[in-house]
Amino acid sequence: MNFNTNFNDIAENYLFAEVADRVAAYTKAHPDKKILKLGIGDVTLPLAPEVIKALHSAVDDMSNAATFKGYGPYEGYDFLRKNIADYYKLNGVDLELSEIFVSDGAKSDLGNILDIFSKDNKVLVPDPVYPVYVDTNLMAGRKVAFMDATAENGFLPMPDKKTDADIIYLCSPNNPTGAAYTKAQLKEWVDYANKRGAVILYDAAYECFISDDNLARSIFQIEGAKTCAIEFCSFSKTAGFTGTRCGYTVIPHGLNKDGLFANKLWFRRQATKFNGVPYIVQKGAAAVFTEQGRKEILQNIAYYKRNAKIIAECMDRLNIWYTGGTNSPYIWLKCPNGMKSWEFFDFLLNEAQVVGTPGAGFGKNGEGFFRLTAFGSEEVTKQAVERIEKLLKN
Questions:
Q1: DSSP H helices in the chain
Q2: Which of 92, 100, 232, 327 could form a disulfide bond with 106, CB atoms 3.0-4.6 angstroms apart?
């Protein structure tokens, strides 16, 4: 027996596990202190009423022999995929149902998609970056190159003459920085990928927070993207499915090389390793895209955007530089007084009992920055902001 030694190349402790460990240690030492968490991007609002209604109906279906469902289609039920396709049409994107694959979340697919690519591909990710992009490639034995995302380029790196990549990870609006690519910027990436014969793995988990028409809700709004991109989406942040688990990945039929089609390869992979998302969950997800469902979901998103505004306005009053907070649930701020990321984490935890996420955990360019999330309750957000402002004004 031999283990996969590539695990030696990744951090022993996942970023958010380290955050949790430090918070747990502080709580044990100070059980009387109330901690306010603006760290992990988990939602706090309950599922929308229309979704709950659909879930209950699906449970009833499972109790009746005439409507009971066993194994479902590997790629998801048509009723959900049709609703997803109709949602894309609202943004001017036409998809075939066979281009949509329902999964248990974008995080899973972002790692699993690597099964269809050879190990000799050159992988390029932005720094700072969502850790899953890097760790899953290192686990598979690939080498990863980084492109610098900095305050100077608005944390939105662009291709240049030195760019050399076969697999490119882009996330917009970005986690952790909250920065979002314009349609013109994405066109440059699409043109590069098509010229190079590369693929863009596009994480659109936060597209529902975009309100600026200059920004893309989907990379497939960009001409040429269907021959060079795969898009990953999630119901977690759109509809609060973090505990319900559902997402979807779009793989166009036009993405191919040397007679191999990414869509067919992914279907084969899923048929081998995945038995699909539960029927009950897919019925709940389908309700997200109904007229009433969209109305309720938009109310939830507006709630989180108000929280983001509360945090952003606090940063403005404190004259702290930041990105995000407008078309994103994240506020990415520069640590005050030249503090390092983990130093500021401990400072906030110990002096104000507020938890955020250290930017250094997302890469070397994240050092000196800090992420706050708008996914807390309004009450917690306001209390946390008051504590932060009181602490940093002194």
A1: 15-29, 49-62, 78-89, 106-112, 131-139, 183-196, 235-239, 262-273, 279-288, 291-318, 341-352, 378-393
A2: 232
